[in-house]
Amino acid sequence: MSIARSLVLLPVLSAAAFAQSENGGMEDDFHWKPFLLQSSFFMGIQHSFRFATEAGTRANLKGPFFRDFGRSLKGIRGWGDNDPFIVNYVGHPMMGAVSGFIYVQNDPRGRVAPFGTEQYWRSRLRAMVWSAAYSTWFEIGPVSEASLGNVGLKDGTNGAVDFVVTPLAGTGLMALEDAVDRHLITWLETKWNNRWYRMLLRSFLNPDRSMANMMRLKVPWHRDNRMGLGYSYGNRDQ
Questions:
Q1: Is 207 a domain residue?
Q2: Is residue 78 part of a domain?
Q3: What pTM value is reported for the model?
Q4: Spatial distance between the Cα atoms of 225 and 11, rounded to a whole number of angstroms
């Protein structure tokens, strides 16, 4: 339990330290309350989906909670966890990107930092740290796959893959979506001043940002760094 506790606490404390140092020690600059609420909302959706679609998860809710939770934590061995490729190497990176975008959208400086600048990469590094913390909590925290469904109780059902792939590949997806938004979507938006066209571009070419937007009860196509769908690019330097 001490190892699992450290895995959860260290990334969270590191994320807080990053945010504090970036804002000159003024923690209020980072929107902590909505950040935690949005992260909790996202995790609630994920666990609800598990309960709705996985009969094994529902079945494993039975039995002694704390004993089975402890045994599940001890079941983390090796790299793989017996999940399909699409879950480990597509689904989990997307989870890492969404949790990372939730961090970024609550960082007043990071969410408007121009792509590729030093401030941009610092903000995405902090988001990656949070993504690692979120992933760890989702896997083995008090409200997790290990506690709700006892993933890891059976040999071979929990490994290091999700702890590593989620934050690393998730940050890569974030950077890819940021690059697409900066260099492709904004360029395509100049070609046709139509709200539905721009709505679809922003939503479907940046799916993880769209999901993160919905976690703060905004439309999927919302952008913090530019005007709304009806904006004219005629005199704007992109």
A1: no
A2: yes
A3: 0.83
A4: 28
Q: Three-class SS string for 18-36?
A: HHHHHCCCCHHHCCHHHHH
- Tally of domains within the chain: 1
- The whole domain housing 126 covers 2-172
Is residue 186 very low, low, confident or very high in pLDDT (cuts 50, 70, 90)? very high
Pair of tokens at residue 89: 């190497």
Say which residues have a Cβ less than 8 Å from residue 227's Cβ, sequence separation at least 6. none
With respect to residue 122, please indicate whether it lies within any of the assigned structural domains: yes
CA distances from 105 to 35, 39, 168, 216 (A): 8, 11, 19, 9
Q: How does DSSP assign 119-167, residue by residue?
A: HHHHHHHHHHHHHHHHHHHHHHSSSSTTTSS-TTSSTTS--SHHHHHHH
The C-alpha R_g of the chain, in whole angstroms, comes to: 19
Give dist(CA 62, CA 192) in Å, integer: 56
Residue 77 neighbours by CB under 8 Å, 6+ apart: 155, 156, 158, 159
pLDDT of residue 65: 83
Per-residue pLDDT tens over the stretch 47-78: 999 889 888 788 878 878 888 888 888 878 88
Q: Is the per-residue pLDDT at 105 higher than 70?
A: yes
| pLDDT surpasses 80 at 136 | yes
Residue 11 lies in a domain: yes
Supply the pLDDT for residue 3.
43
